[in-house]
Design brief:
CATH topology of the largest domain: D-Maltodextrin-Binding Protein, domain 2
CATH class of the largest domain: Alpha Beta
Shape: globular
Number of strands: 12
Structural class: alpha/beta
């Protein structure tokens, strides 16, 4: 079913509610770098930065932006970035196996009743009769790199539908979008704030939901270097405390609508500083709102979902079969789900 081998995969390489997340005040502002993608799903970092929650936790944060998950994992391993939020990838797992990184929390999870990631097809494929995921048999599926979350999602869809797809690595999310719109690939899946505007343009079509194929999928995780997790406990706890306050504010405004329309508008304005910055607020707002998915309160981590992802990487030969959950995850920082 998969066109990649392991060598290729590695080469492309509110209040805080979680356990231990009471905000400790560091002796002085500690300079750290936080990695992110310009996605609505990364809003907790943006909120914590803009509303001073990282500063309250004693941290002087610089945000650094990436265009795919695996380069962020490499940056964590090299020490160029201290903390990041991204999907689990084959590259991340392999770096954990080398003792370079640890997953320390959860960020975004598919939740019943909350609009989630969408399965998309190109207009060309749709017009040719691909109107449901089961019809992707023999078609192409876009991924950033081998072993990326897009690869995992496509493979799980293919497994459940008992079909075969070819996976095309295009390195960047923007390149995948371009290939889908032009019909160079047939299918892809992405968060709703990207999926819905694409579908609205008529260039692509939504044919299903990822949640129908992966139960309680832990879409993104919080991770850091193994050194930070083991030796910088105060700094790591401080980061998670600030981050978790950002999560709480985001969920309150965008999911629970505690502040009404004014609260939503204020949050959208904040997020717009980082997402869809190339368009005016009034045009960006609908896409940002479309991307609303609940973030993990207190950065709680669904370890059952992470274990399923690890098992998939191993079954595909993308990572070493001997890697354990203890190698990948440090569960001492946050509450866990499905343990």
């Amino acid at each position: 079913m998969t066109d990649f081998n392991r060598r290729q995969a590695i080469a492309t390489l509110g209040a805080a509610t979680a356990v231990g997340l009471a905000t400790p005040a560091l002796a002085q502002n500690r300079k750290i770098t936080v990695g992110a993608l310009r996605f609505t799903s990364h809003s907790a970092s943006f909120v914590a930065f803009e509303r001073g929650y990282f500063k309250e936790a004693g941290l002087d944060v610089e945000l650094r932006f990436f265009e795919a998950a695996q380069p962020m994992a490499v940056a964590i391993a090299s020490g160029d970035v201290d903390y990041a939020v991204t999907a689990i990838s084959g590259g991340l797992v392999s770096l954990a196996d080398k003792g370079a990184i640890k997953v320390i929390g959860g960020a975004l999870q598919e939740e019943p009743g909350i609009d989630g990631q969408k399965i998309l097809v190109s207009d060309a494929a749709f017009q040719a009769g691909v109107t449901a995921p089961a019809m992707l048999d023999g078609k192409s599926w876009g991924v950033t790199q081998a072993g990326s979350s897009f690869h995992y999602i496509g493979s799980k869809i293919a497994q459940k539908e008992n079909i075969s797809m070819s996976f095309k690595p295009l390195q960047k999310v923007g390149a995948v979008i371009g290939a889908l719109k032009s019909g160079q690939i047939d299918g892809w899946a992405i968060v709703p704030h990207i999926a819905k505007p694409l579908a609205g343009s008529g260039a692509v079509h939504i044919i299903g939901n990822v949640s129908d194929y992966i139960d309680n999928y832990q879409v993104t995780t919080v991770f850091t270097s193994a050194k930070n997790a083991a030796d910088e406990r105060e700094m790591t706890t401080s980061f998670l405390a600030g981050f978790s306050k950002g999560v709480a504010d985001y969920n309150s405004a965008m999911i629970d609508k505690a502040g009404g329309d004014e609260g939503v508008n204020d949050m959208v304005s904040l997020i717009h500083k980082y997402v869809y910055t190339d368009r005016p607020l009034e045009k960006a707002a609908p896409s940002i709102i479309n991307g609303t998915m609940r973030l993990n309160e207190g950065a709680a981590l669904n370890v059952a979902s992470v274990a399923d992802q690890l098992t998939w990487f191993q079954s595909e030969g993308l990572v070493d079969a001997g890697i354990t959950m203890d190698t990948l995850v440090d569960t001492s920082y946050v509450d866990t789900i499905g343990a």
